[in-house]
Design brief:
Strand content: 5-15%
Number of helices: 5
Shape: extended
Oligomer: single chain
Largest sheet: 2 strands, antiparallel
Helix content: 40-55%
């Protein structure tokens, strides 16, 4: 009895072909597991959150995002400062995004006075 040759799973293309994809029928987003699809549906479309911020009550979709939310919104140890406007950030990536897209330096402070 002969068997069919198994694909070489070391190649990226073979791994991608073997992966199952689960597509959200509401928005079309493709997720890699049924569990992540169900979580996506609950959080994004039904607005049911497994975690809530103890400070402001915001619903959060995952434990990791709750930790990030606490650090960026409620932690006083923000160590990244914008040299143009002085706004502080908990994450270097947030500062980079701010300086590339949002910061107008002195114009911001003139508009708020």
């Amino acid at each position: 009895m002969s068997t069919l040759p198994r694909p070489d799973l070391r190649s990226r293309a073979a791994r991608l072909m073997m992966m199952r994809h689960f597509q959200c029928i509401q928005c079309g987003e493709v997720l890699s597991t049924l569990a992540t699809l169900r979580s996506h549906e609950r959080v994004v479309h039904q607005r049911r959150f497994p975690y809530y911020c103890s400070v402001c009550g915001k619903g959060i979709g995952s434990k990791e995002r709750l930790v990030g939310h606490m650090a960026s919104k409620h932690d006083d140890s923000k160590k990244y400062n914008c040299s143009k406007c002085g706004k502080q950030f908990a994450y270097q990536k947030s500062l980079l995004t701010h300086t590339q897209n949002n910061c107008y330096g002195l114009q911001d402070s003139l508009l708020t006075n």
